[in-house]
Amino acid sequence: MMHLEQLPPWAAVIIALFVVVGASLTLLGGVGLVRLKSFYQRLHAPTLGYSYGTLLIILASMLMFSLAEGRVVVHELMIGIFIMVTTPITLLMLGRAALRRDRDRKLGHDEVVPPRIRSTEPPAETETESETGDPQP
Amino acid sequence: MTAEILRFALGYAQIALILALGLACWRMLRGPRAQDRVLALDTMYSIAMLLFLVIGMGNGNVFFFEGALVIAVLGFVTTVCAAKFLMRGEVIE
After folding, report:
1. Count of the separate structural domains present in chain A
2. CB contacts < 8 Å between A and B, how many?
3. Would you say B48 and B73 are in contact if contact means Cβ atoms under 8 Å apart?
4. Mean pLDDT per 10-residue run, chain A (137 residues)?
């Protein structure tokens, strides 16, 4: 724990503030994930942790290691850029999957995956296997 | 004094992140449908990555950064595969 004493006081205050605010916002996202009612509301809750939590903790980590090692340490930016690029992709795909599943459920299709091989049934019954829910030839 | 402030802040951050991890785990175990569980798993990956960063700051060890990077990459791949499976019924088509 010798590296904690080497930091100047202003940096310690800034780092502590960033870390505390970032962790609190992430915890708030977790609370929202539990308390919100529908899935489409819950999809928005953990983005607090993705955006603010990651940004603040990465800034604190960069500042701390830069001051502790006496050189500019920016490799935490890699995590930041990666999270910034990948989070919209994952959440968009998850939202589209949820939309498709909700539409399938509204159309009367079951969530249970039907068995793959059905040779004896008419093709109208195998419609549940189709991707969109539209009747396909 | 400097070290006490930082130690308190890092301890608080670890406790808050572990609480958030527990809440996301509750949602993953409870979640009414499959997409809730996938969302909670993705949240757990992200929070574990932040927890690794905070623990690395507390230890002064740079190697926790690489663990956090690996967790971020694995979380992205896992969530994309799970969402694609929910959407199509297959991962690779």
Report:
1. 1
2. 179
3. no
4. 76 91 93 90 89 92 88 88 92 89 74 57 52 49
